[in-house]
Design brief:
Blueprint (H helix, E strand, L loop, with lengths): L2 H4 L26 H7 L10 H9 L10 E9 L2 E11 L6 E4 L11 E7 L4 E8 L3 E9 L5 E8 L9 E9 L13 E7 L8 E2 L16 E8 L2 E7 L11 E7 L2 E7 L3 E10 L2 E16 L2 E18 L1
Length: 315
């Protein structure tokens, strides 16, 4: 049986695995609170009284960090890097609280999070619990200049012991992340391979005469979002709430052009696409696995094509 007959069951998407530098929406010092408010990127809320801040300065200590904001973090789980954890921190001192803002399938955290802030050190601890992660704790440090976040995630429940304590990297945002170029528009996109059906497919093994006439590549949904001076393309499920899923992708930006590699269970792609607002188009070399069931069992072979049209259309 060809891949075309199996299409409804083969919707495999991909997950970005690169660790990227955070955008310059960093911690706001108390002295800079007014500037943050003027640009619309921060609230300028202060930790402690003015007298406490003055005392800290007299003692030679750095002014406290502003730690409220939206956190986008990535971590390793189930043998793959790049899973997202997204949450929001609001309030200060004893009133600080956290809330999960998007599903995290590798952890399945409950929405409410316990947060402990250390503005003087620009650090915070976040704790929660979930079906997939058990008791989860995050020890995080925020770079006051860039907003980059580093730290460690620990969990009591994991598929592998290696996942019980892993590094996390990411960013803390104040407001909506800004794209590195106007040509990039964040959102959900449908990625189509051979969208114009003009590719010429051939068997990757010259000695194999099995046909590549019925190659049918299925569209996948991906999320495009800016991080610092680049973008991240993450695969998501086709159905709401569009959770992250397995796969690999690398995206290297030069202007509005992105060198792209994609790997899924059935597809390997390497090419370049150009972003133009919410439309993206390019070409790639593609290898696609064909599957056929027969009396002697399942048959597998690869079909390849060059110069294949690749498009991403914003949904």
């Amino acid at each position: 049986m060809s891949l075309a007959r199996l299409a409804p069951t083969l919707a495999v998407t991909l997950l970005a695995s690169a660790v990227l530098v955070a955008p310059a929406a960093g911690c706001k010092k108390k002295d800079d609170a007014g500037a943050g408010a003027a640009t619309g990127t921060g609230t300028g809320s202060a930790a402690g009284s003015g007298g406490e801040a003055a005392a800290a300065l007299d003692a030679g200590a750095a002014p406290p960090c502003e730690l409220a904001g939206d956190y986008r973090l990535r971590f390793r789980s189930n043998g793959q890097d790049g899973w997202w954890l997204r949450f929001k921190v609001s309030g200060a001192g004893a009133d600080a609280r956290g809330e999960v803002t998007a599903p995290a399938p590798m952890l399945r955290l409950d929405p409410a999070l316990l947060v402990t802030l250390d503005p003087a050190a620009c650090k915070l601890e976040v704790k929660g619990s979930g079906k997939a992660g058990g008791d989860v704790a995050l020890a995080l440090a925020v770079d006051a200049a860039t907003g980059a976040v580093t730290g460690q995630l620990t969990r009591t429940q994991a598929v592998s012991d290696d996942d019980r304590a892993v590094a996390v990297t990411g960013v803390r945002d104040l407001g909506a992340p800004r794209p590195p170029e106007p040509c990039f528009v964040a959102g959900l996109y449908k990625l189509d391979v051979d969208s114009d059906a003009k590719a010429t497919w051939k068997n990757a093994d010259p000695g194999d005469d099995r046909s590549c006439e019925e190659v049918m590549t299925l569209p996948v949904m991906v999320r495009v979002e800016p991080v610092a001076d680049t973008i991240v393309i993450s695969p998501v499920d086709g159905e709401p709430p569009h959770e992250d899923t397995f796969g690999t992708v690398t995206a290297t930006r030069s202007g509005c052009d992105v060198a792209l590699t994609v790997g899924t269970e059935l597809l390997q792609l390497e090419g370049k696409v150009t972003f133009a607002a919410d439309k993206v188009r390019g070409t790639a070399t593609v290898k696609h696995q064909m599957i056929e069931d027969g009396d002697e069992g399942e048959g597998l072979w690869d079909c390849t094509a060059q110069g294949v049209t690749v498009t991403l259309v914003r949904q």
